[in-house]
Amino acid sequence: MAGKTLYDKIWESRVVVRDGEEDIIYVDRHFLHEVTSPQAFTALKEKGRSVRRKDKTLAIMDHNVSTRNRDWNGAGEISKKQMELFSKNCTEFEVDLLDINHPDQGVVHVVGPEMGLTLPGTVVVCGDSHTSTHGAFGAFALGIGTSEIEHVLATQTIRLKKSKNLLVKITGELSSDVTAKDLALFLILKIGTDGGQGYVIEYSGETIQKMSMEARMTLCNLCIEAGARAGLIAPDQITFDYLAGRDYSPRGDEFNRKVEYWKTLKSDEDAFFDKTIVLDASEVLPMVTWGTNPGQVVPVLSRVPDPDSFLDPEVKTAARRALEYMGLNPGESMQSVKIDKVFIGSCTNARIEDIRRAALFAKGRRVSSNVTAIVVPGSGRVKRQAEQEGLDKILTEAGFEWRLPGCSMCLGMNDDYLLPGERCASTSNRNFEGRQGRGGRTHLVSPESAVVAAILGRFGTIQELQKEIV
């Protein structure tokens, strides 16, 4: 009999009821935000139900929050109403809420891990696609819909059909100018935005083992853009060191006992995977998207592809439409593409490591006069840490705006958005049409590449930046 994968082990440890093709799974941690929860709370009220495990539930304001100020009116009337309703619901149902004035408020997928609320071997859910971020800790973490949010609030369980297992093994060394963001985009380029459909991805290999927790979170965050249900990385000493001493992590002897259990959370050597993909990290270059989905991506030093170069008719048609929307031409050098705005932030790239890297390359340089660049820390804690290290001063002296925590320009749902035709180098996770504002043109990049774009006023490389005379 074949061994078990990490995903198999977590699933089997959390099955409450087996029910045909679907199982009822226990949920260890439920995160809420203001956009996807209102209907769920309304349904609870109508049915006279309460929140079953308030101690396993945490609400955080992030999507509608203004990053310019802490004014409830800051992001407009609709945002204000959503946040006020969220606050009212959390008060009524006695759910802990980090509102816009809480010192630890921030993007849910940054706040949860840094507070020690995400632990190996657990099931984590949130009404947000990029809940997969938490899989970096060896947790089965997935985004859920409004009706499922209601079900979890009422029962602390969720009904799910088990996905297949996909192993992505990454070997070799990443170049010094290549990040987890570039690796994630490279994977999506190779397998497509539907390559992970029906699967839970487990990332493994020597490259992964050397990654920081921040980098692992970036990688798992983007597995959704490859179509996967979730992404996982087996916990190791890097994971344990990250969790030690955090607010909600186990303490003392309990922590040591947990670590011994967490060490068992890895796929068996003879585990069966439905599919395996092997990538060589040394082949990955700094990447930038040219189109309107994360799979439409090329190396920064490359050119915009010709739609006629694609064999699949649907891919060819999608490429033509994307180029028309993005205002680009086949064969155009990505290095010649000028930008208007830069956004460094989001649940993909707004952790302290991301801010440090951005500051490293911004130091002593200046943002192009034609570019507006903002840096949005992922949480109050990230913001305070960055300020203690003087990173905010480095960035503001270089011409970047230093903002308050929130989802910001990742999506056009607050007061940070693109105007029609504006082009943005963004460290977020989606470049769909209108994602950052109606008619806005989004190019996904790493924090390093975003800094380069901000300073050069166009896409380029770290090497080009280092040649610039300061």
TrEMBL record:
Keywords: 4Fe-4S, Amino-acid biosynthesis, Branched-chain amino acid biosynthesis, Iron, Iron-sulfur, Leucine biosynthesis, Lyase, Metal-binding. It is an enzyme of class 4 (lyase). SUPFAM superfamilies: Aconitase iron-sulfur domain. Its EC number is 4.2.1.33. GO terms for molecular function: 3-isopropylmalate dehydratase activity; 4 iron, 4 sulfur cluster binding; metal ion binding. Residues 8-457 form the Aconitase/3-isopropylmalate dehydratase large subunit alpha/beta/alpha domain. Its cofactor is [4Fe-4S] cluster. [4Fe-4S] cluster binds at residues 347, 407, 410. It catalyses: (2R,3S)-3-isopropylmalate = (2S)-2-isopropylmalate. GO terms for biological process: L-leucine biosynthetic process. PANTHER family: 3-ISOPROPYLMALATE DEHYDRATASE, HOMOACONITASE, MITOCHONDRIAL-RELATED. This is 3-isopropylmalate dehydratase large subunit. The gene is leuC_1.
